[in-house]
Structure formats: C-alpha cells, structure tokens
Model the fold of this input.
Amino acid sequence: MVRIIADSTCDLSQDLLEKYKVAILPLHILLGEEEFEDGKDIRPEEIYRWSDEHGTTPGTSAPSMESALRLYKEEYTEGDELICFSISGQMSTSGNVMRLAAEEMGIADKVTVIDSENLSTGIGHLVVEAAIMAAEGKSRKEIVQRIEDLKPLVRASFIVDTLVYLHRGGRCSGLAAMLGTTLHLHPMIVVENGKMHSAKKYRGSLQKALTAYAKDLEPAMRKAKRDRVFITHSGCERELVEMVREFLQGLGIFQEILETRAGGVISCHCGPGTLGILFIEDKRV
Done:
C-alpha cells in the first residue's frame, strides 16, 4: 500500500486529511523562546496577537527529526511505501528532514520525498491527487510520475491585505509597507519555480482587490482541471470569502470549491486577511 504524508504547510482541512487518509508532519512556529507545532498547539490568531505585541514576525522552522521518525513509525508497516510532500525546498528544509529520517529508519528505498516547489494548497492539490491515485491502487512510481507532471501546472497566488507582516519578515521595505498602507495597496503574491514574488498590486479596499483578482484569474481558470479549486485564507471576513465563492460558482467550471484556512507558517508571513485562489491548469484545454 502507498501511504501519503505531507508537511503542515499543505493547509488541508482536517476533514480533507481524513477523507484522503493523509498524515501530517508539522513544521514549527517560534514565538520568542517558545516553540509550537504548526496546526497542533497554536492558532493563527495567537500568532497575530504575539506579532502585534512584539512588532516582529514569529520564526518558523522545519520539522524535527524526532517528529519525522515518530510519524514514519506510525505510518509505515512492512510492505508499505510512502510518498512525502514538502513545502518548496527554497523556503524550508522540511524535505531534507523527511529524507534523513527515512535513511535513519532504514526505509529510504521505500520512501519518495517530493519537493512540491509550492506552498499552502498549491501543495494540497498535489497531495489530494496523489491520495486519490493511491486509493485506486496505483504504484508509487505511477503516482510520482503523475505528480511531477502536475507540479509545473499548479497555479498558486494570494492577495495580501496588509504589508505589515511582509515587512516584519523582511520581505518588503518599511517605506514600501508604509506607502502600501497609505495608498491601500494589496499585492498579488504568486508562487513560481518554488519562489514567491509580487506579480501585481491592486489599489482600494480588500473587497475591490479580491473582485479584480478573481476576474483577472478567470481566463486561466477556464483552462483549469475541473475537479477542484481551493479558496485558502488566513482569516478573512466571512462575506469576502463568500463573495469569492459565489464568483467561482458563477463560472460553472469546478466540480468542487473547497475552502481551507491557512496554517501557522503561511499566517506568520502574510498576516490576516490574505486570500488565495489555487487550481491546476489542464494542459489539454
């Protein structure tokens, strides 16, 4: 049997993890001297509160070797094979921990670690695809080849409500953050080739920015795989999430519109009010 593991940055909801039988290896969140496991013993609201009180971004780190070994022992039995998904290797050493743990346990030949070259439900899309194939009885080789084909087709982007958290994390200057706040600028952060970059800036209210963002994505979404699309956010107002959902429903493209909450790692760096629409391009369209 092929079992699927992902690090906590995949941002899949508990319902989806249970549905697709995916096990999670948590990254760590560092609030000063205190260390927490992402998605287990800390909530994004606590992260925001700490960040605002201290005027800095919490640290994040890869999973510990001990956690990886413990998870492998729970998930692996004789005859099984494991496929493990990590956040982009250019953002974390999570994948290296997974590989080293497999070597330490003596099951390296039974484990494939996939660098998603992505984050959040950009990883989640790949994890779900792999889990479906595993449930269908596909081999590890077949699943890995399919995922490698899909990786460059994942379209992951987000609209950021505030530049404060990007500034605190060193991802934009203080001047840019100040001007962005004054001018009500909302950058569109895109993940490409394993890295994040700002592709566009929307001006005005967050509602206006999200409306324009969704419309800008429409041509690409009309070429998307129709199985599912994710709305992933770090704590947006309910009416904004529903507005985006209604827009996607109106397109009549996707069989499933799945909403997930961004975990601690994404929340640390992007702050509250961040929302993304994530899908996979269908190169056959």
In short: Residues 167-183 have pLDDT under 50 and may be disordered. Residues 184 and 205 are 7 Å apart (CA to CA).
